[in-house]
Amino acid sequence: MVVREKVIRIxxxxxxxxxxxxxIxxxxxxxxxxxxxIxxxxxxxxxxxxxIxxxxxxxxxxxxxxxxxxxxxxxxxxxx
Length: 80
Fold this sequence. Notes:
Layout: H1 2-79
């Protein structure tokens, strides 16, 4: 009887340790998924920054164009 109880205890402890291992593995997977999410969000934010920078450049180019146009119009006005 005593030996049987010990065997059952050992088996139970093995099952517990396996469950713990599974939990740890699951948590590792979760943390990896979180890392991937964070990386994706970083990429998104970088893309957004790039978009913003591009739009700034576009607006600056537009400003320069409009200034050039103004200068041309002024030149035309003075020539008359």
